[in-house]
Amino acid sequence: MKKGLKLLAAISVAAFAITGCSANSGGGSSDTLKIGLAAPLSGASAQDGESIKKGVELAIKLANDAGGIDGKQLSLTALDDKGDPKEATNVANKLASDKSVLAVVGHFNSSATLAGAPVYNRNKIVEVSPGSSSPKVTDAGDYTFRVITTDAFQGEFVAKWTKEEGLNKVAILYEQTDYGVGLADVYQKAAEANGIQIVASEAYTAGQTKDFASVLTKIKEKQPNAIFIGGLYNEAALIAKQAKQQGIQVPFLGVDALFSDALIKLGGDAVEGFLIPGFFNPNSDAAETKKFVDAYKAAHNSDPGTYAAYAFDATNIIIESIKKNGADREKIQQYMSSLKGFKGATGVNDFDEKGDVLKNPEKLIVKDGKFQPYKK
């Protein structure tokens, strides 16, 4: 059975008790086809949540402008999980118990995705995450998919890149969440396998830690020649600025969670030289990327962020599944389980047997105040 459903059985029973309803196919006879959104629309990750919401709304708008599906228009039910696992469970129950909701885009935070997964699995409704990259999500259940690659993949990719740059003494700073802990763990293992010495590994509290002075002092004493950040751009910008104040002048590396213009806006010249893999290049010549970027700019008069692009792809994959296999929860899952070659704004999407997406990133560097392709 895919994704370790047996391990989640006990949790699923509890989730079933909360929902108070049996699994249903969804859809009904409504004149609209409803997609759910579960995202952090408030809290520490609210900026990403709003970006995700805009990506979902744009995908639905374009589909409706093109005539909808079989004469029916698409609609959105958006709920705020606040980036909190407990609230994510509540949101998952609300969406799953609404028989008209066919599938869900979400959650963003890995801990929220993991909390909601038993509910979605019990009710046989797909969730497609635009931002949960924790390795634990791989085994979250048959109905959990994601359009972002795993931390295991990205950690190994960045570790190899670290070695290629000749950086052999690295300090790790990571957020104390499922996402941060998992990312730090896979990067450390991959780095050590590549002959890289991890000289320090320090945690911080996402959304709360503002002063990194003492942690950076410890790291400075270890004399690393690079720092890996396992977290989001908010803290990464603060870390870079405070490291510069302490005279720490080493390359910073991270994964695509840092690939946001907000990193540069918040960090300024302190984030110059950051090395990051990216799956969404707004300047790409790829047809699907250009279509998304042009439509987003027309709708919002601003450039789209990475998570808007991921959410756009997640929504379009759901829409494609409905078109190809029908407005039915189980049929959507069946179609997505064998999805290959779906061209989106973030690249070509293939799902493996675990619901993890397979695609390759581009190496990027922050140079002259913007993300640019990296050339050694």
From TrEMBL:
Signal peptide bounds: 1-17
Domain Leucine-binding protein: 32-354
Transport among keywords: yes
PROSITE patterns, A to Z: PROKAR_LIPOPROTEIN
Keywords: Amino-acid transport, Signal, Transport
Family: Belongs to the leucine-binding protein family.
Protein name: Branched-chain amino acid ABC transporter substrate-binding protein
Source species: Cohnella kolymensis
